[in-house]
């Protein structure tokens, strides 16, 4: 069940997104030179919130969207948009949420509570990874080390600016785009990258 704060944040989400689009949260980066990774995406490791390993090689031939999430953020309303995108493009696009408590402690819940929150309030049916660290430090999850290290992914060093930052990997395992949190998963520019 959503708290009063979570309900208020959901209501304010459209205003939050529009207001923040002009700052760093509106950052968009593209792999314009189409540089391939030196370390394959399909060799990366992560764990789902139920403890099962994620086999990224299962996504070969499909685009993948990696997004760091939080339950108490002004962007939390994007869970509904991500679910809509999942329902529309599920055969072509795999979405995986990576909950993190890295930005103003906006995800204090445990993995079970996060899963329940997402299902009850947003009907989330796409995979949710085990809660972990997405920003650059010694505890950063291996996948996020790959996403934010140009020596591994081929071109990008940009770490998430805030919750709901989005990384797009193409059908061949190439990191193609980074979208800041104020870019909606339903914006035309974003849809062009994932469709």
Automatic annotation (TrEMBL):
InterPro entries membership: Glutathione_peroxidase, GPX_AS, Thioredoxin-like_sf
Gene Ontology terms describing biological process: response to oxidative stress
Protein name, as recorded: Glutathione peroxidase
GO molecular function term, any single one: peroxidase activity
Protein family according to the UniProt entry: Belongs to the glutathione peroxidase family.
Database matches in SUPFAM superfamilies: Thioredoxin-like (SSF52833)
CDD domains: GSH_Peroxidase
Record keywords, A-Z: Oxidoreductase, Peroxidase
């Amino acid at each position: 069940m959503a708290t009063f704060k979570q309900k208020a944040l959901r209501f304010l989400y459209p205003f939050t997104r529009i207001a923040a689009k002009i700052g760093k949260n509106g950052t968009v980066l593209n792999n314009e030179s189409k540089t391939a990774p030196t370390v394959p995406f399909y060799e990366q490791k992560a764990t789902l919130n139920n403890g099962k390993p994620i086999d990224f090689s299962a996504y070969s031939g499909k685009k993948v969207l990696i997004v760091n999430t939080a339950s108490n953020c002004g962007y939390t309303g994007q869970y509904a948009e991500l679910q809509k995108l999942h329902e529309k493009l599920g055969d072509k696009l795999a979405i995986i949420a990576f909950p993190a408590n890295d930005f103003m402690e906006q995800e204090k819940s445990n993995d079970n509570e996060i899963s329940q929150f997402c299902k009850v309030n947003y009907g989330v049916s796409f995979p949710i990874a085990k809660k972990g660290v997405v920003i650059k430090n010694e505890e950063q999850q291996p996948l996020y080390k790959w996403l934010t290290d140009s020596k591994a992914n081929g071109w990008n060093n940009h770490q998430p600016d805030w919750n709901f930052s989005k990384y797009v990997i193409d059908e061949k395992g190439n990191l193609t785009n980074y979208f800041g949190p104020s870019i909606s998963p339903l914006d035309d520019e974003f849809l062009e990258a994932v469709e």
